Amino acid sequence: MNPxxxxxxxxxxxxxxxxxxxxxxxxxxxLLGIAxxxxxxxxxxPGLRGLENLLVIGAAxxxxxxxxxxxxxxxxxxxxxxxHTVVRPVTAALLVVLALETMPWQIRLxxxxxxxxxxxxxxxxxxxxxxxxxxxxxxGPLAITLTTLAIDALxxxxxxxxxxxxxxxxxxxxxxxxxxxxxxxxxxxxAGFGAExxxxxxxxxxxxxxxxxxxxxxxxxxxxxxxxxxGRSPARGARAAAIGLPGAGAYRTGWLxxxxxxxxxxxxxxxxxxxxxxxxxxASRIEPGPLSDSLHFESGKRPFTLLLLKDGPPAExxxxxxxxxx
Length: 326
Prior knowledge:
Structural class: alpha+beta
């Protein structure tokens, strides 16, 4: 066997497993343990034989069931995804390091980093997809449930394929990574928005809710928010994301700012903060959500939506102030 196929086999085993962990960590760990214990797969690396332990298998199955239920609960699914933004890549990296226990530390380090990147990409892609589906006007709870089942099935199939047909698994991983890059910013911004929305929903219980005064906004944001005129109310902002707003990418998270000079959406671009004045709108409606409240607007050019995070003002108050300063 020449070196390239041998390398492809190892890469397929490790990166296929890492990608499966990014999609569903506990299904992957539990399946590998059960499959190795039952003799369905025989080439599990010695460093991963601990997955055959009944306690490990039991814990993985239990956590898989918890995750399966949490994803169907109103708030728990998004919070679970936010927490596992760290858990899945770190665990995938640890599994690869253990699998390479007989290799030099440089190879183990490189393998662990590669696994973390692959798992993070898989997790971010599926998390972003869930946010896109959850905020689509054309889908409902059934679509979210079907998406969850499809992701779980893909994780299980890829975990098995990584051991039984690693070269095919490697091809799937490469194709999925390329697809994630092609889908690009919208998907990753949606994933980032979902993680921040879940985090701020939790932090709301430990802090105040409402507008932030201009002097409490980040310095880069304040730089493009005019100071108030003497005797007039100062500008204030709340964390939000935009969809359909010209000049701002979908699900880009920034600040909804209201003040005496009108309403604007301000966000940090690659080089500096950017301020986009909100178009005048003729109609509006509020759609409450578990992690963010949607403010839908009809304007002369095209409709747009603002997703107001839960640590900001109530949606009704935000809409009233937008109307006042329009």
